[in-house]
Write a structure and sequence with these properties.
Helix content is 43%, strand content 19%. It is α+β, with helices and mostly antiparallel strands. InterPro entries: RseC (IPR026268), SigmaE_reg_RseC_MucC (IPR007359).
Length: 161
């Protein structure tokens, strides 16, 4: 289970809407001498924090501002990665191979078929991810209240160990 600390934005009977706080990193990261988390954090900083709806299986009472730990099943993350990255690539290569080896088309037509395969692969992923049962598998779950836990920020050890 992959765990992440989050802050409750709203809570209702369907679950809770949470956002993850920005990663400030340690003082070394902020100076650019640590693991690079501070520099990377500044480059990817968003004006508005993204939110996600998490399931609340225990029906615990939460109010806005509560800190919780949410979790996502490891298999769900691996499955989502394979779906989003490998699916379109396999479709692209499949279309290109069929165009070249089966249909005997030239280079330009094979490239065009590969691009069509990539687009078809992304379309398949979009349709697949909008299915109700599929979305529930990838929904994070509130595991517990944070209760003063510290998030796993980089260590102050310069060796990175």
């Amino acid at each position: 289970m992959i765990e992440e600390r989050a802050v409750v934005v709203t809570s209702d009977v369907d679950g809770v809407v949470v956002t993850t706080p920005g990663r400030a990193g340690c003082a070394r990261c902020a100076e650019g001498r640590g693991c690079g988390g501070g520099v990377l954090g500044r480059l990817t900083e968003r004006r508005q924090q993204p939110t996600v709806r998490a399931a609340n299986p225990d029906n615990a009472e939460f109010v806005a501002g509560d800190q919780v730990v949410i979790g996502l099943d490891d298999d769900a993350l691996i499955g989502a990665s394979l779906l989003v990255y490998v699916g379109p690539l396999v479709a692209m290569l499949g279309f290109a191979l069929v165009a070249h080896l089966v249909l005997g088309l030239g280079e330009v037509a094979t490239i065009f078929a590969g691009v069509l395969g990539l687009i078809a692969g992304f379309g398949w992923v979009a349709r697949r991810t909008h299915q109700q049962d599929h979305g529930l598998r990838y929904r994070p779950v509130v595991l517990r209240r944070a209760n003063g836990e510290t998030s796993g920020q980089c260590s102050s050890d310069p060796s990175g160990l």
